[in-house]
Structures are given as C-alpha cells and as structure tokens.
Amino acid sequence: xxxxxxxxxxxxxxxxxxxxxxxxxxxxxxxxxxxxxxxxxxxxxxxxxxxxxxxxxxxxxxxxxxxxxxxxxxxxxxxxxxxxxxxxxxxxxxxxxxxxxxxxxxxxxxxxxxxxxxxxxxxxxxxxxxxxxxxxxxxxxxxxxxxxxxxxxxxxxxxxxxxxxxxxxxxxxxxxxxxxxxxxxxxxxxxxxxxxxxxxxxxxxxxxxxxxxxxxxxxxxxxxxxxxxxxxxxxxxxxxxxxxxxxxxxxxxxxxxxxxxxxxxxxxxxxxxxxxxxxxxxxxxxxxxxxxxxxxxxxxxx
Length: 302
Prior knowledge:
This protein is α+β, with helices and mostly antiparallel strands. It folds into 2 domains: about 5-25 and about 140-280, Transferase(Phosphotransferase) domain 1 (Transferase(Phosphotransferase), domain 1, Orthogonal Bundle), CATH 1.10.510.10; about 50-135, Phosphorylase Kinase, domain 1 (2-Layer Sandwich), CATH 3.30.200.20. It contains 6 helices and 8 strands, in the order βαβββαββααββαα. The chain is globular, with a radius of gyration of 19 Å. It comes from Musa troglodytarum. Keywords: ATP-binding, Kinase, Membrane, Nucleotide-binding, Serine/threonine-protein kinase, Transferase, Transmembrane, Transmembrane helix. It catalyses: L-threonyl-[protein] + ATP = O-phospho-L-threonyl-[protein] + ADP + H(+); L-seryl-[protein] + ATP = O-phospho-L-seryl-[protein] + ADP + H(+). It is found in: Cell membrane.
C-alpha cells in the first residue's frame, strides 16, 4: 500500500482515494467493542454521551427535503448536504442508502466521542427509511483539495509553501491523536479531500473511522513519480532547504514497511521544525502576502 501523503505539494494528484502511509504499525480498533476509546490526557471528555440520534424528519427539514441546492459534495459515504438545524446549528449531513445495522450505531457512538482541535466532530446519526446518515460539524472553507485544484485539476486558490506546511501540521496532529487512542484509530482513507479548513484556515481531518462503516470498500493504491513531488505553481515561494527536508520526510512516510515509517507524533515535530526554519529564512510568503501567524494560524490568500 502506497500513500499519496504528499498530495499537498503535487501538481496533479495521482489518486484522491489513497490511504495514509504515515500510520503507526499498531492494531486497528475493534469496532464491535462497547468499551470507550481512551487516551491519557487527551481527546475524550467524560461529559460526551455519544452521538445524537436524529430523526429523518429533522434532517429533511434541515436540508429542505434533501434539495439539490443543499448538496455541497460527495464522498465514499455518499452525497454531502449542508443543513440548518432548528437550533441554528449548521451541519454537514452525509447520506447513503443502506439497511439499518446495530453495529453501525455502536461504531458511530464510539467515533462521536473522539474530540480534538484538528478533527472534524461527528455530532450524530440517523437510520430511517432505508437510509444511513452521519451528521458532522460544518466547515465553511471546505476541503484542502478544493483549494488546490478544481474538477479539471486546476488551482482555485494560491496556497503558499508555508500555508501548506501549516495545514500539513494540523492534519498530522489530528492523525497523531487518533493513533494515540487506546485502541488506536487508523483513518484508512486519508487524502486532501478529507482535510477540511475552518474559518481561520485551521486544518481538521474528516471521516476518521468512517472507512470502517463502509462494507465491501476495497483498498486503493496510488503511485506517483519523483518528478511530481513539487507543485510547479509554488514558483520560488519556498527555500530549497525547507523543500528538501519536506521531501525527505515525505519519502519516509511513504516507506512500504509500516515499521519503518515515522510515528505521527514524530511527523508533527518534524513539520513544526521545518515550518519554523522556513519562517526564519523567509519572513513573507511571496509577493505582498501577509506573514504567517503561527499562534493563530491565520492566513490570507493571494
């Protein structure tokens, strides 16, 4: 299994359904278990009582009866709708046709208890009318994939090297949290379309564990040549030192042997170091773009 981890920096993504290659070599979650996932000192607050069960009527009202105008995307789980709940909360609703399953409910309740700044929160679920639905927090800026390329693989937003590094750091922190849970959660479908950004452009990993809810979904293998590692649209907006170290880290994460790949905690530390070095070597991101503020991770787009 080869992973398109470096998709943040490529001109053309080889395969947007590729799996993450920077997984710790650990046992996956036992999805049938009823005991709670735990992580010492992080992530699962005792006050979370699991996923909220929504009714089909609630979600039909939130999406104007699943109007086409409310569709904001599609993914491995099905169509994604933007919805407005009665309390004013804006949510993302993923819907697919499927028979009700008790295992689905149990797995969703486990996943909904996972909380981290760099993970998209699973709020609830619904199983009615021959449908299965997942309700997530809504991220207004969409996916990084949408900022990197449109349907014809052309860039929609100019993301400078430092911005991409900061997004990679946020995503790595989310994955590191998943891998640190007991038992660990392996994403299994990590790609740029599953990395969303909020109003402050803070990266959040989406669909953590959702791969396990899909039956009969095969693994996808992606290949990419070394000539595609650097996005030519970056121009000269980065230092050779920073890019060389990033490529070296990327290649480590793509090692075919899981035991030889770095742990996500180590990836976070290394990405932080590379970004700090890049900040020190060049204090502005291209022509007239504002300086990155590491504390808030606020960005402007050219």
